Sequence to fold (603 residues):
Amino acid sequence: MSTATLHGQMAAPGYASGPAHCYTFPDLLEDPGELPEDASTLAECGRLEAGLAEAEQILMQHYRDLYAAERDEEAEIFLALAALVQDRSFVRLAEGLITDTGITAEHAAIIAADHEADLLEELPDEQLRLRGGDMRELGRLVMRVLRGETNPWQGLTHPAIIVAPDLGPSELMSLPREHVLGIALAAGGIHSHVAILARSLGIPMLVGLGDTLLEHVQPDMPLALDGTTGQLLLNPSAAEQAAMHERNAQAVAREAALRNDIALPTVTSDGHVIRLMANVANAQEAQRAQEWGAAGVGLLRSELLCAEASFWPTEAQQLALYQAVSAALPDQPITIRTFDIGGDKRFDFMRYLNAPALTQPTRRNKKGKTVAPAPPAGPNLRISEANPALGWRGLRLALSHPELVLLPQLRAILRLGAGADVRILLPMVTNLAELQQARALLEQAQQELASANLPHARQVQLGIMIEVPAAALNSASLAPHADFFAIGTNDLTQYTLACDRNNSHVAALYQPFDPALLRLIEMACSSVHPYGRSVSLCGDLSSDPRATALLIGLGVDTLSCTPAALPHVRAAIRATNYQQARALARHALNAPSAQAVLALLAP
Fold:
């Protein structure tokens, strides 16, 4: 048979070749789904509760296993999944289906889970949409438990590449690791929980291969999976399989070489120093950044530390989270971005922003500290905006409710600064007035801590993110008032090119190498350098080694990337000649398109 090639997205890097093992979801059609006439719906609701309890035990066992293996981040995934078992809207819906329609607990679990997943997948926030897949897997897990089929991999008896519509975290964790060469999924996302687990376990995985995968791949069909290009080869030739094995061996050798280079300085071949830092969202990622030799945290996404919180995180809770990150990188600078919420980042604790209590005046306690209004009671309220990407988000949201949002966070960061090198970064700054308001609140936070006699940093740098084209265009007027700058290319790209980066209809327009974006980066660097201000770049572009020389040539001083990208970007920095990078940047700025820029960067 001839070779066919499917294209997907790399969720976990690596190469694999071997036979296919086709996994299908439990089939609802295997039974009619209706209870016998003499069956008790009350007893069936009891079966559902028992199934949910056993599913929770399975998830918590995965949590304990990962925690014992010191994989704290991955363990937290199963803690969050176990919490879904207690989701009252899901449980009430399933019980109502049993009582009102007389269907079995298995059917009720699947239908209720799919309903809740549909609601999640309609939300604008990508992280919340991905939880829909977790909810669907919970339904499948409960169904298998009720059917006594807790091991979905009994037929996997030899090493193979798993082919499936999608997978959930517990399905992945129950895989016999010795028999898994790689994973190919028709659906899924690169930021999903199962993708995080695959990367952690070192299992090459492709997602988004489409229904063609399920239509054309047969059990035991030879496959070759390339986790760098996103390609899946069906019926590869012997030569193609040999080439895949060779690329895998080369990748292993490169990884070993990179590990030997983590202590090398990040300096170009002609002596130009570039600082290499990490983007992190928790203490575990900070630990990995330390292991890969990061010179500190260039971007701590503080809102993700609190993503699972049901209540607005207090000053003390935030301080504890920041201290955990700082402890993973002792004596290194930590740049904390204030809450970047709103737009495509909506979390449960944001219901406080809708609360009527926020219209009430704030007060001060006996120590003179500002006290926010009482938290709201009642249902989880969602903030609805016609165009959230251009609406109430980032700093503009924080400034609208400083007592709840910004002041407690500034105090927590300043308290961390009593024993750590800390900097504050403001997201979504549009104009000078916003920066001045934030600086005034920073001074107020310092005064409140001094009045309370709490140790805190007396001096801390306050920087701004350039994510809005206006901030790049006005960078010269902002430079005297900001201590440093960080360019967020993810948002800057979508605002410059007017394309939602989460909208598949305009995905082709989202081009971080577009010359228009490069001009804004160069403009920001050249405008603020005369004021002695440094510029870091912390968007996804910083983690792409293809872009390293170009960004250096455009004037970027610091690259802050994902922990996994650190060794690759370090190697790219050391392979760059600064003068040649400057010439490359000049050519790229005059290129007619993103494709032309990429052609300049081709090896």
